[in-house]
Amino acid sequence: MRFITFLFAFFLLVSSAHAEQWLNIKYRPTPVDVDKPYFEYLDTSSSSFVRGAWYDKSKQYMIITLQSTNYHYCGLDEATWTAFKRASSFGTFYNQAIKGRFDCRIYPVPEYGR
Predict the structure, then answer these.
(1) Backbone phi, psi, residue 78, to 5°
(2) Over pLDDT 90: what percentage of the chain?
(3) Closest CA to 53 of 77, 72, 32
(4) Are 97 and 64 in contact (CB under 8 A)?
(5) Is pLDDT above 70 for 4?
(6) Rounded to whole angstroms, how far apart are CA atoms 38 and 33?
(7) Residue 27 confidence (pLDDT) above 90
(8) Domain spans in the chain, listed from the N-terminal domain onward
(9) Within the chain, where are the H helices?
(10) What's the CA gap between 93 and 50, in Å, rounded?
(11) How far apart are CA 95 and CA 101, in angstroms?
(12) What is the mean pLDDT of residues 17-24?
C-alpha cells in the first residue's frame, strides 16, 4: 500500500512539474504554451479589463488576455513591458502605450513548437 501511495505522489509531482497552458491567440494560427520558463507572467487580477499577460523578453513577444480573448504583440521592447508591469492601471496603460503598436503584421511572429 505504501508503494502505491508513493507512486501516486510521485506521479502528481511529475505531472505538476510539466504543466502546460496552451493559449489560442486571435490572429495567430498556432497556440502558445505560456507555461514555458521563457514567459514571464504578470498577475493582473486587480484589473477588470486585463485578465492576464505574458512576456517573452528574448523574442519581444507579449500575449495579453482582454476580457476573454487572447491577443499578441510583436516587437514589444522590455522597457514597455516594465512600464506596463508598474502601471497603476493595466487597462489605461494598454490603451495608451500598447494598443495599435507592436503589430504582428509588421514585426515577425515568433515560432513556438509543440
Answers:
(1) -65, -35
(2) 81
(3) 72
(4) no
(5) no
(6) 10
(7) yes
(8) 20-114
(9) 2-17, 78-86, 90-93
(10) 10
(11) 10
(12) 80
CA distance 69 to 37: 23
As a whole number of angstroms, the distance between CA 3 and CA 14 comes to 16
Per the structure block, which three cell numbers stand in for 102?
A: 507592436
pLDDT of residue 20: 84
Question: How many helices and strands, by DSSP H and E, does the chain display?
Answer: 3, 6
Of 51, 46, 43, which Cα lies nearest the Cα of 89? Answer: 46
**Backbone angles phi and psi of 40, in degrees to 5:** -95, 130
d(Cα 49, Cα 27) in Å, to the nearest integer? 20
Residue type, 83: A
pLDDT bin (cut points 50, 70, 90) of residue 108 is very high
Range 10-14 contact pairs with CB under 8 angstroms and sequence separation of 24 or more: none
Q: Please report, to the nearest 10 degrees, the dihedral formed by the alpha carbons of residues 64, 40, 33, 10 taken in order.
A: -140
CA 52 to chain centre: 7
pTM of the model: 0.82
